[in-house]
Design brief:
The protein has two domains: 2-173, Alpha-Beta Plaits (2-Layer Sandwich), CATH 3.30.70; 178-385, no CATH class. Helices cover 46% and strands 12% of the residues. The protein is built from 17 helices and eight strands. The protein has helices at 16-19, 28-36, 48-65, 83-97, 121-134, 149-156, 166-169, 178-213, 247-257, 261-264, 284-291, 299-304, 318-321, 330-333, 342-346, 353-366, 369-385; strands spanning 69-75, 103-108, 111-117, 141-147, 219-225, 231-237, 309-311, 338-340. Strand 5 and strand 6 (231-237) form a beta hairpin.
């Protein structure tokens, strides 16, 4: 899987005159006063805000170039008055030791970060060993991370992203205000409860019909990836025979994600359809509940549990994420996945995978309460028309 060995910020890099956006924490002014009298080029150390902006830009470059991007976070643990002096000494040392293309930032709380473009995990290990051997009596601890390699590892194995390195993998500056997030959650809970009450007769009738026409469980449970790649159990009404082999779907999504459109197009050139048709695993009742989207209704309970939202990108399967390019992952890392979203109302099964991802990214960049309400209204119309369903 070549993707495992290997995302849009238009803001240009900060100029030297604009980079010194002095942080407000207690030790910051001391750090910057010391650096201003230090070696040439010391003023290139970025504040936390500008460092994260630059980090986003470098990640987008990595998404295009496929070259790895690494980061080292240095922490000076000094509870006494010598803390500022120690971090000043470390900052000067790093300025003299880093490459011209490396980016140094002050993160506050006695932390410095060094961003290393075009550097893999092996390169980071070599650099940290070299720094340790030349640091003298400068005491510090480090946390390292490499993007996107370790991000993929965290989605496909038990690897956990180190807390200090989280900004390398998840865009902190893209988050909405706490009030906006709280309002969205309130609407999700209220909407899910209202829909469960309103559609309870439909769900009960569907459960009975599945139980009477096909042996096996009524609810289909599947592991999906949620916000920040956290796995959760995803619910649907079962529309396939019990214990169906997923190999057909695995092959199909791999071809779709990798752009093999001629192989996966179930329509024609003028009216493409990127969706499996005539799937032998689907039951007769399953075809109907899929066409009417009734099979999706149990996901309202995922919304109540906080694993999903009413509106957001669809949550991928782990084996889908294994096929992703790094920029594809942005559709699932930033926000909770949704029952419906921009792709369902704008593209449906007529769009390629890359176009679907761009629709999801457009939603993430422009999301608002009004946009959510528009998407929900369009979803009702599309479901009523069975647009794009098979």
């Amino acid at each position: 899987m070549p993707n495992l060995a290997q995302g849009v910020l238009g803001e240009p890099p900060q100029t030297e005159s604009s980079r010194l956006d002095v942080p407000q924490d207690a030790g910051a002014s001391g750090v910057y006063r010391r650096l201003s009298a230090g070696p040439a080029g010391a003023s290139h150390m970025l504040s936390k805000h500008h460092f994260f902006k630059q980090l986003q830009l470098e990640k987008r470059r990595t998404d295009r170039s496929k070259a790895p991007l690494s980061m080292i976070v240095f922490r000076v643990d000094s509870p006494n008055r010598h803390g500022v002096q120690n971090i000043n000494n470390l900052a000067d040392f790093l300025q003299l030791s880093k490459r011209e293309t490396d980016i140094l930032g002050y993160l506050g709380e006695n932390r410095l970060a060094l961003l290393l473009p075009d550097t893999n995990e092996t390169g980071v290990q070599s650099l940290t060993h070299n720094l340790r051997s030349r640091a003298g009596d400068i005491a510090y601890s480090i946390t390292t991370g490499t993007y996107p390699d370790q991000l993929f590892d965290s989605l496909t194995s038990a690897y956990k992203v180190p807390t200090e390195a989280i900004p390398l993998f998840f865009d902190e500056t893209s988050s909405r205000s706490t009030a906006a997030l709280a309002l969205k959650r309130v609407i999700d809970i209220a909407g899910a409860i209202a829909l469960i009450v309103l559609l309870a007769p439909v769900m009960v009738a569907t459960a009975l019909a599945i139980a009477l026409t096909s042996p096996g469980p009524v609810i289909f449970r599947q592991i999906r990836l949620g916000k920040r790649g956290k796995p959760f159990v995803f619910y649907k009404f079962r529309s396939m025979v019990a214990d169906a082999d997923d190999q057909i779907h695995r092959q199909y999504v791999a071809s779709l994600i990798n752009g093999m459109h001629t192989d996966v197009n179930q329509g024609d050139a003028s009216n493409p359809l990127y969706k499996l048709r005539s799937d032998p695993r689907i039951t007769r009742l399953g075809s109907f509940i899929r066409a009417t989207s009734i099979d999706e209704l149990p996901q309202l309970f995922n919304v109540l549990k906080g694993q999903m939202s009413l509106v957001g990108p669809r949550p991928p399967l782990p084996y889908e994420a294994e096929q992703y390019q790094s920029w594809h992952l942005r559709r699932v890392l930033e926000i909770r996945p949704g029952i419906t979203g921009m792709w369902q109302v704008e593209g449906r099964s007529r769009t390629s995978f890359d176009e679907m991802v761009r629709l999801d990214l457009r939603y993430i960049q422009n999301r608002s309460l009004l946009l959510d309400l528009r998407i929900l209204a369009k979803t009702v119309l599309i479901v009523a028309r069975r647009d794009g369903a098979t």
